[in-house]
Design goal:
Strand order of the largest sheet: 1-2
Order of helices and strands: HHHHHHEEHHHHHH
Structural class: mainly alpha
Shape: globular
Distance between the termini: 15 Å
Number of strands: 2
Radius of gyration: 18 Å
Oligomer: single chain
Amino acid sequence: MAAILLALGASASWGIADFAGPWKGRTLGTLRVLLVGQTAGLLTIAAVVAVRGKGLHEAAALLAVPAALSGTLGLVAFYRGMAVGAMSIVAPIAGISAALPVVVGIATGDRPSPLQLIGIVLALAGVAVTAREESESGSTSFAAGAGLALLAALGFGLYFVPMHAAGEADALWAALLFRITSTSIIATAALVRRPALRLGGADLAVVIAAGVLDMMGNLLFAAASAHGLVSVTSVLASLYPVITVVLAHALLHERTARSQKVGIIGTLAGVAAIAGG
């Protein structure tokens, strides 16, 4: 039960962060929002680890570093996809990252349930429908941001397995090492691109909240890893697109084609089936 609650907590944190961060990124710039948000998350988890006062004793926690490399790639692609496409399309496509830990489990001897297999097929079919949009002339093409969403799904999918192992060793240190690595990558990109960094007022508050919530998602997932299997915790944590889509429709009033709505529902239903299996 603890693993389920912690993984669902990670999903909720990521779902809100993945709406608030990209929403601000559309007007303030992806790199600026990511740098400020990641720094806020780093300072928060560093303070928590410092208060606990326990050093790093488990080498497996270092697996958070490769998890951060793939996760940061996924996060940048996700933000860029959200900047050019509809959140209600990009988020469900990125959510198929849930299928990758199941595939890894199959490769290492796990046997997914029939419901999980149905979920994988349903999610992939949903993505195929969601990623296509029809123009006024009747021709079809990839929806804006769909390619970046698929790249995000790959990055997020490759994150789960090493982060799960790191979390089993030490959840707090795993979250800190992840954030150190991800912030370093974003900071390096900022040194090269030199974006404007000044933020204030409500914008700063929202970006900081998004960064802290993103960090909380990492921490809660790492904590869930100490209590549950990677195939379970990963797919439950991947339910975050539901929250992102609901917020996008409620607050931004995003419009999507009828066929894409069917695809979104199919994708989310597939992720839920993978989790429920």
